[in-house]
Amino acid sequence: MTTEQPDLQTLIRKLEKRHQKKQATTALVAGTAVLALTVLVAPLFMQPEKSQIVEAPAPLAPVAVSDAFADLRLEGKAAIVFDLTTQETLYERNARSQLPLASLTKLLTIYAAANTLAPESQVSISSSALAAEGESGFSEGETFTFNDLARFTLISSSNDGAAAIAEAAATKQAMSGKNLLAGAAAAAGLSQTYALNGTGLDESTSVSGGYGSAYDVARLSGALLEKAPDIAHATVSSMGSVRSSTGAVHTLPNTNPDVVHIPNLLLSKTGFTDLAGGNLAVVYDAGIGHPVAVVVLGSSREGRFTDVERLINRTQEYFIGIAP
Q1: Alpha carbon distance 132, 129 (integer Å)
Q2: 68-322 has which CATH code?
Q3: Residue of 142, 146, 143, 141 lying closest to 120 (CA atoms)
Q4: Domain regions of the chain by residue span
Q5: pTM higher than 0.90, yes or no?
Q6: Per-residue pLDDT tens for 217-248?
């Protein structure tokens, strides 16, 4: 008995039906998988409604320089707060104006001599040095080491001492005192500074012994701190004493009575003449190893101290404002 075999057309129709059924099943499975994946992944890409967005708080804005020093009142004609670390001017008022320096000129004198004389070089008090206005108690012929006399000169603003140091340094260089000071100013890049004598005393009723800008004095103060730190640091002492080679001791108070009140003070120098008015330059550490120079020119005898105090207070506000 033979089994009947299906014809070719019948077989083809059966195969087509099976293939269509398989395609439909595959499509259903694939569609189900895609739907499941969409349900799982979609929340990762969907943006929340605006009402659900929580913005991170904005960082505290630093106090701008203009804000820290806003509405600052000073008696001085010119002033500057100069960051010696970053070489940035934090505050300025006529800081590039050339004005009489008075005894701030002594900073230049000591800086010039420090480039010429060794710390133990002997400096003698001459009759011409004693002719300078002011009395430090020296006698003609007394001899001191350069470093000792320089410290005493800046602390007490001794005109005798400054004149003697300028003479000794100029003689060592075989040049005039004016050329010595001019060379030192040029070497330090002080384009607005020049001196006619080493003391800063007025040459006449119309000509000062030294001229410069608040900007130049700030940079000069930093240069002296770097060149002769032991001399510069001595200027924050309330009293200055110096012993001559024969044992005579001379003691005078600091011309800046506020040295004991300014925290972290590194350098201080006063100046006052009829032409200059009251001048004051200080350098203090605003942070760990962060010296800042504060200079006031053309104030009054008492106003210079108040001006510098106000500038230091505002400078501290500035640094608090930019602290992280």
Answers
A1: 6
A2: 3.40.710.10
A3: 146
A4: 68-322
A5: no
A6: 999 999 999 999 999 999 999 999 999 999 99
